[in-house]
Amino acid sequence: AGPQPLAGRKVLVTAGGTIERLDPVRYITNDSSGKMGFALAEAARELGADVTLVCARTDGPPPSGVTVVKAPSAEEMLAAVMERLPEADAVVKAAAVADYRPAERHEHKMKKGAETMTLTLVRTPDILQAIGDWRRASDKLGTRRAPFVVGFAAETTDVERHALDKLARKRCDLIVANDVSAQGAGFGSDTNIVQVYGKEGLVLSLEQQSKRLVAERLWQLIAQRAGWSADG
Ligand code: PMT
Predict the structure, then answer these.
(1) Where, by residue number, does CTP bind (predicted)?
(2) Crossing angle, helix 35-46 and helix 211-225, to 10 degrees?
(3) If you ran DSSP here, which 8-state letter would residue 27 be given?
């Protein structure tokens, strides 16, 4: 094995696209395959971490050697993440969480009726925001060192502006922006192209490479910024 900058660290990674049910056979979801989150979990395991992977809907099986927790919807993911937050040294949120869910979840399969139908959607909880609020509260109480928090930002326009806005609003330590309209980046592909922002602005820019390599570079950066590595 190579160097293990994450040895002895507990990390929490989220992956996949949440599914927000309308009835027992229908739901709203998105194009996330879980590949980015899986790559992060696998790379963290290789770098020595104790990894918990919180998964929504994904394509294919998760990597071996990590603890997998299923959390299909945004609300289930919120509960799964918040429960494990107190033990985590780092949280990386690669999952694509739905911003809205159907207001009503029908117990039985909905029947065909009128020519048109209107769906009412309501906001889901923002998990990253909840983590930020929790960190602020625990900072105030001075209870324990809060985990290092990394969000992702899937954007199609004005990537930098939106990423910096999310970093500030959701109070993360770093935000990984990917322009999901670029070829070879974002949803479903085996590669990604990302820019990582901290409070001071751009801190790392990675050109097109496998999600696995992107994941490794991200963990190296996290270990360094969190003060875990010898050269931190
Ligand atoms: O899974 P793949 O096919 O490999 O694709 C990877 C990816 C494109 C999904 C991934 O790289 C990515 O960008 N993930 C974040 C997608 C997303 O939901 O972005 P967002 O800009 O809508 O959200 C910003 C951040 O807030 C994310 O870390 C998200 O997990 C979080 N969030 C969003 C909504 C919500 N209700 N709760 C959240 O915590």
Answers:
(1) 99, 109, 125-128, 152, 166, 170
(2) 60
(3) E
Interface ipTM:
0.96
Any idea what DSSP says for residue 184?
T
pTM for the full predicted model: 0.95
| Pocket flag, ligand 1, residue 218 (CB < 6 Å) | no
Question: Coil, strand, or helix at residue 84?
Answer: helix
Spell out the CATH class of 10-99+121-225: alpha beta
**pLDDT tens digits along 111-165:** 999 999 999 999 999 999 999 889 888 777 666 678 999 999 999 899 899 999 9
Query: Domain spans of the chain?
Result: 10-99+121-225
- Please tell me whether 199 is known to bind a ligand: no
Task: Decide whether any atom of ligand 1 lies within 6 Å of the 186 Cβ.
Answer: yes
